[in-house]
Amino acid sequence: MYIKMATLANGQPDNTSLSSNHSNPSTNGHMNGLNHSPGNPSTIPMKDHDAIKLFIGQIPRNLDEKDLKPLFEEFGKIYELTVLKDRFTGMHKGCAFLTYCERESALKAQSALHEQKTLPGMNRPIQVKPADSESRGEDRKLFVGMLNKQQSEDDVRRLFEAFGNIEECTILRGPDGNSKGCAFVKYSSHAEAQAAINALHGSQTMPGASSSLVVKFADTDKERTMRRMQQMAGQMGMFNPMAIQFGAYGAYAQALMQQQAAIMASVAQGGYLNPMAAFAAAQMQQMAALNMNGLAAAPMTPTSGGSTPPGITAPAVPSIPSPIGVNGFTGLPPQANGQPAAEAVFANGIHPYPAQSPTAADPLQQAYAGVQQYAGPAAYPAAYGQISQAFPQPPPMIPQQQREGPEGCNLFIYHLPQEFGDAELMQMFLPFGNVISSKVFVDRATNQSKCFGFVSFDNPASAQAAIQAMNGFQIGMKRLKVQLKRPKDANRPY
DNA sequence: TGGAATT
C-alpha cells in the first residue's frame, strides 16, 4: 500500500485506477456527504464552467473526506471532494480528487499547497495539481513522423525547441530499441505545439526518410482505439484479394465501428466480417475459374506486343474505379456491349444475389450493393438510387493494408502505365495466384505514379508464374519489368 | 526496389 504509492513518482495513482474512478465519479461521491446530491436541486452547488478538477496526492490514509474538507475549504467552496479508494477492497489510496466551485479557488489552493507542506505521517509533500483527466496533454502533444531512424531525443529536441518549452520528447522504438522513425513531443501549451506544426510540418526531408517531416497533433485515445480496430479489420482481409473490391464494405464496417467502438472487436470476431470473407473467397474462386477459362483463349506470351495480359480481359471484377485504357490495354472487363462490368460477370449465372434491392437487414447484400455503387453511378443509375438510401453518405474507401509476402513471393514491377493504381496492378496479377497486396508507388508531392510497384503473393509458385508470364510484357511503348523484389539488405555492400 | 507511424 504505502510502497505502491511510493513507487509513483508524482504520487498520482496509476492510470487504470485513475480512469476507473474518473469514469464513475459519483460512486464514491454519494458516500462521503461532500458531494452534491443529484436528486435535490436545491443542494446542487454551482461550479464554474471552467472549474479545474484537482488531484490531491500524498494524503495520509487515515484521513477521509470530512478530515480533508477543512484543509481545503479555506481556499473556497468545495464542489466535490472524493478520496480515491480501491475498486475492490475499498482501501484508501492516499489521494483524492477535488473540485472547487470556482476555478480561482483551485488555482489558489494549488499555489498555496502543492508541495508546500507535508501531511502528518507522509514523507513527501502534498500534491495539489490539475488531475490528469483535466488535460491529458493531447492538445499540446505532437506526433512527429518521417524522422531519420538515427535521430535521438536530443536531435528532435533541438529541432523543436525554438517553438516552445518542451515538456517531453520521446522517440518511439521497437522492442529491439531501434527507432521507428517517429516521436512524441509535448509542449507546455497548445499554441507552442501549433507553432511547431506550422513551421516544421513538411518543411524538410530527413536523410533516409521517404518523405518530408510529419508534424501533427498526436492521436487522442479514441483515435488510437479506432486505428487499432481498423488495423484489425485490415488484418482479416489480408489474404483476401477481394478485400480491395469490398472497400465499400470496409468503409461500412468502419462506420459501424465508429458507432460501436466498444463492441467492435467482439463483433468482428464473432463473425460479422467473417461471413464477408467467406463470401468474397467463394466469389474469388468462381472468378478465378472464369479467368482460367479466359486464359485458354488468351495465350500467356510475354512479348505478345499490345495484346492483353492473360485473364485481364476475362470478366474479372466489378469494382475497378474507372476504366483505364493504355493504347488498347485495359485492366477492365469489356464493356463494348454496353453492359456494365458487373453484369458481364454475373450474367454467367454466378450472380451471388437475385436482382433485388438491398435490404438494410442483410450486411452481405449491403456489401454487395457497395460494390455496385463503387462500380459507378453512371453504370447503375437505378441501383445507385437505392444504394444512396442505404448509404446516405457513402463512406470513403479504406486503403488496403500492405503486407509483404513470404520470401520469394514479392515482385517488383517496373514500367507500369502511368495510370495504374493499386487496384489495376492487382487486377493484372490476380490470374497468377492469391495476391495479398499490391502497391503502386506514388510521388507524395505530385500524387503521380512513379510507374513502379510491388505485388505480393502468398506462395512462390504464383510469383514465378507471374514473372514468367508478365516480365517483358508490352504495354504501349513500354515493356513491364517483373522480377522478385530485392531483399531489404541486398543492396548493401557485403 | 516499399509497405511507416500513435507510448
Automatic annotation (TrEMBL):
InterPro entries: CELF3/4/5/6_RRM1, Nucleotide-bd_a/b_plait_sf, RBD_domain_sf, RRM_dom
Region described as Disordered: 9-46
Keywords of this entry: Cytoplasm, mRNA processing, Nucleus, Repeat, RNA-binding
PROSITE patterns the UniProt entry points to: RRM
RRM domain residues: 52-133, 140-220, 409-487
Comp. bias regions, Polar residues: 9-43
Coiled-coil stretches noted in the UniProt entry, renumbered to this chain: none
Alphabetized CDD domains for the sequence: RRM1_CELF3_4_5_6 (cd12632), RRM2_CELF3_4_5_6 (cd12635), RRM3_CELF3_4_5_6 (cd12639)
Predominant cellular place of this UniProt entry's protein: cytoplasm
Cell compartments where the protein resides: Cytoplasm; Nucleus
Keyword DNA-binding: no
Record-stated family: Belongs to the CELF/BRUNOL family.
Protein name as catalogued: CUGBP Elav-like family member 4
Classification of source organism: Eukaryota, Metazoa, Chordata, Craniata, Vertebrata
